[in-house]
Amino acid sequence: MTATDKLRIEGRLPELGGATAWLHSGPLTPAGLRGKVVIVQFCTFSCINWLRTLPHVKAWDRKYRDDGLVVIGVHSPEFPFEHDLEKIRSALEPMGVDYPVAVDNEFAVWRAFDNAYWPALYFIDPEGRIRHHHFGEEDYERSERVIQRLLTEAGSADVDEDLVSVEPDGVYLAADWGTLGSPETYVGYARATGFASPAGLARDRSRVYVEPSRLQLNHWALAGDWTVGEQITTLNEPGGRIVHRFHGRDLNLVLGSRAGGGPTGFRVLLDGEPPDGARGLDIDERGNGTVGEERLYQLIRQDAPIMERTFEITFLDAGAQAYVFTFG
């Protein structure tokens, strides 16, 4: 942004009292934050779109904290396991999130902002006025320029106008937007699209599924004995599979296991073969992996040329649970 760009007033920082808990801080309030530049980011720890923004947000926090910036995360859970305070804590700690996080299990803060997105950034000036917002990923340069502008307006002297240097890797690496041809794909019936097993999904009851002989792009199927729930699809007998025809550099899948079931082994194939050099962080070259904690698992990261591929995951144990495919 340029010096002549205007930042209009979009509203005021609402009360944050609806948070059910706070991490790394006591409860924060608009009154207590007066005089500070604040950015509020809505997140949920299994969300790939949020994960890819995290290196930038952490870098802003480190660079501008001493200039008067306060970063606040608002963790509004998408899936049931993301309500658990200890799971939130254990997920965020290794990510290096040490700024205040409001645990928003009742979506009270979400509603107070009238928010609708993961991730979403709101930029608040020292008078408590919302001056800018951004939904989704990218636009990092403009976001940082807004921070610099608000800090300067607040009287911070000698704000460094250089932009942070961020070199993310792993799940934090930005999507390859130019080759990405597959959308987020939920496997619970509430938001399922592209399901291709014959006879469709049976809601909330056990069914033995078979996969079609051929999958079209962005279609997926089950094989084996599964129960498809509103958000969670659970394997009832060992050996069940999920197959997906996709187009993208990365394939991720949010996975867990039934309570008390323990770790669940799985094997991934790409076009019927072990993924080898196309493996993601959570499998070996032969495609073997284990579901432990509930989280996003990076299963495929392939080099160019990027083309349509068929992904297959077979679970060796009953109790495996799947939530959503994401791509990058």
From TrEMBL:
All copies of domain Thioredoxin, residue ranges: 1-152
Family annotation (Pfam families): AhpC-TSA (PF00578), Thioredoxin_10 (PF17991)
Top-rank lineage group of the source organism: Bacteria
Designated name of the protein: Thioredoxin domain-containing protein
Organism: Pseudonocardia adelaidensis
